[in-house]
Amino acid sequence: MENIRMHIEEAIENSPRLLEDGSNVACQGTEGSYSQEAANRIFRNPSILFFKNFEGVFSAIEKGLCRYGILPIENSTAGSVNQIYDLMKEHRFYIVRSVRVKIDHSMLVKSGTRREDISEVYSHEQALAQCEKYLDHYPGAERIICSNTAAAAKLVAESDSGGKAAIASRECGALYGLELLDRNIQDNDSNYTRFICISKELEIYPGSDRTSLMAVLPHKAGSLYAVIKEFAEAGYNLTKLESRPLPNTEFEFMFYFDFESSVYREDFIDVIERVDGLCDRMEYLGSYSEKI
Amino acid sequence: MENIRMHIEEAIENSPRLLEDGSNVACQGTEGSYSQEAANRIFRNPSILFFKNFEGVFSAIEKGLCRYGILPIENSTAGSVNQIYDLMKEHRFYIVRSVRVKIDHSMLVKSGTRREDISEVYSHEQALAQCEKYLDHYPGAERIICSNTAAAAKLVAESDSGGKAAIASRECGALYGLELLDRNIQDNDSNYTRFICISKELEIYPGSDRTSLMAVLPHKAGSLYAVIKEFAEAGYNLTKLESRPLPNTEFEFMFYFDFESSVYREDFIDVIERVDGLCDRMEYLGSYSEKI
User: Fold this and answer.
1) CA angle B85-B86-B88, nearest 5°?
2) Bridge partners, B258 (sequence order)
3) B206-287: what CATH class?
4) What is the overall mean pLDDT for chain A?
5) β-pairing, A253-260 with A237-245?
6) Is beta strand B281-288 parallel, antiparallel or unpaired with respect to A281-288?
């Protein structure tokens, strides 16, 4: 990576003090989605544009239609969203903020639907899996997979026939006028998704203390060890480390690293440069703070 | 972990020389699934029982209905299947073999359906995502999500109305009597899934050279570094390393490690014991060989 030092120094110096409110923000999905919740947590009053898929979000930013985009990067149950990492690399965009959204599923029905009438439950595949124990109370109900939880809520709200329920967020139920049967129905109560806010230009805001890197290491014993050693010796805590087989290779790996350090620490850019020197390729994805 | 040395030594000494053929093998899904392909690669003539979900596979082994089970542990695009790791830990089962299955999607229709008639494409959500570029040739066709690719093929085969296509394996298309329109339609040609063969008892077969561990490390700087150092100094190659936030904790992580070493190496059990000593908790998931 060329001029990484200059690039980071400039961004720390020249970025605005606050994320610009009132910008257009691109989200994937439908109104009422968890992405929308993430956008509302990061921006005070975002004007959100929804896109069908992740590529739509990237393309909206590329074309200047939106300045920022909100994307899920990792779920505590389902793991990392590799497609987002691939798109980040392809577009060379940056992470400027992140936020953790608790995934709190609710059982939602059209007003008047009784528990004993429920014969079909609509939701995203992962949401259905996350509520398996709760759904044992409805052994006869068919589970029907939708592309996302908000789409499931919309479908149930617009359906004429009775007996349908959706699993989605409470807010999403309110949006589509559905009645709340039960809330907090997921088997595991600490299910959350990390969303990132991305931008075309590198922006590093005051208080940034988390940095994300993607790296391909030389295919030899000890190369990962050497990288970890840099972080350990600097006293930087790794908050994420993940190996992923590289497409079209047999034994090469891509690594995702997240580490904690204030961007103002004297050795901050030194460590990144040294890690860069140990890698075959490295992508600096940005430094940012995370809302919890 | 108690008596890990004795447990591994006994298994190396006492395990049969070959995986027992003719045992009942539990798979998740439907006939024609990629799990079935994995079972056929590992066993010569398996009698396969299909279960609706992953828990069904574990429960079939627990009850003695099946001696082995076949499960997807990681996909080169979608990453690790965390649910399987959780179930392995809960049931204290072991990995006795693994196999890599290339995921080769085909476009399948009922005989007589013409390309220009296709208005609906059925498949698993991930398979639809993996064929996004190919599906650009069918801009008007609706994509409909099914619980797995084999279920999609079955649905199309049993449908009376025309205009439906399924994305699934070629073998699956043949099983359900569907016509092959195009094969190898995934965007990325090196998409594979690793399947593991699990068993209730620890069995370590001759030639085993890959070991899987799950570990919770002490929450202090350098604890991961210390573990990696053990592998690096022994000259053992790490083929997988992944951090995952622990449910119900804020800053604790579970790590998945896979490393390469013959089980006959003199220091093999020493290294595992030393790593165990560095962890708050460690689960030894087994040593096995992988079919490629």
Assistant:
1) 65
2) B212, B240
3) alpha beta
4) 91
5) antiparallel
6) unpaired
pLDDT value at A61 more than 80: yes
Q: What are phi and psi of A162, to 5 degrees?
A: -85, -175
A221 contacts B237? CB cut-off 8 A: yes
Pairwise CB contact (< 8 Å): B221 & A232: yes
d(CA A220, CA A102): 40
Q: Is B61 exposed, middle or buried (0-12, 13-18, 19+ CB in 10 A)?
A: buried
Taking the Cβ of residue B102 and every Cβ of chain A, the question of whether any pair is shorter than 8 Å is answered with: no
Q: What distance in Å separates the CA atoms of residue B170 and residue A279, rounded to the nearest whole number?
A: 40
The CATH architecture assigned to A18-103+191-202 reads 3-Layer(aba) Sandwich (3.40)
Q: Which CATH architecture does the domain made up of B1-11+19-103+191-205 adopt?
A: 3-Layer(aba) Sandwich (3.40)
Phi, psi of A232 (to 5 degrees): -65, -45
**Structure letter (DSSP) for residue B285:** E
**Comparing B1-11+19-103+191-205 with B106-183, is the CATH topology the same?**
yes
Check residue A67 and report its DSSP letter.
Answer: S
- Nearest Cα of chain B lies from the Cα of A186 at a distance, in angstroms, of 13
In CATH, the number for domain A106-183 is: 3.40.190.10
Catalytic residues of A: 193, 195
**Token pair belonging to A134:** 């709760």
Q: Which chain B positions have a beta carbon within 8 Å of A291's beta carbon?
A: none
The label of the residue with tokens 């092959």 reads B180
Q: What Å distances lie between residue A286 and A193, A214, A283, CA to CA? A: 19, 11, 9
B22-48: pLDDT as tens digits: 789 999 988 888 999 999 999 988 999
Q: Flag if B189 and A248 touch (Cβ within 8 Å).
A: yes
Contact B16, B68 (CB under 8 A): no
Whether A83 and chain B come into contact, CB under 8 Å, resolves to: yes
- According to CATH, the topology of domain A1-16+205-292 is Alpha-Beta Plaits (3.30.70)
Contact call for residues A42 and A34 (beta carbons, < 8 A): no
Name every chain B residue with its beta carbon within 8 A of the beta carbon of A83: 77, 129
Model confidence over B151-198: pLDDT tens digits? 999 999 999 888 999 999 999 999 999 999 999 999 887 788 999 999
Cβ contact, residue pair B225, A229, below 8 Å = yes
The full set of domain ranges for chain A reads: 1-16+205-292, 18-103+191-202, 106-183
Chain B residues touching A77 at Cβ < 8 A: 82-83
Q: Can you read off the two tokens belonging to residue A36? A: 């929308």
Backbone angles phi, psi at B124, to 5 degrees: -70, 150
Predicted TM-score (pTM) of the model is 0.85
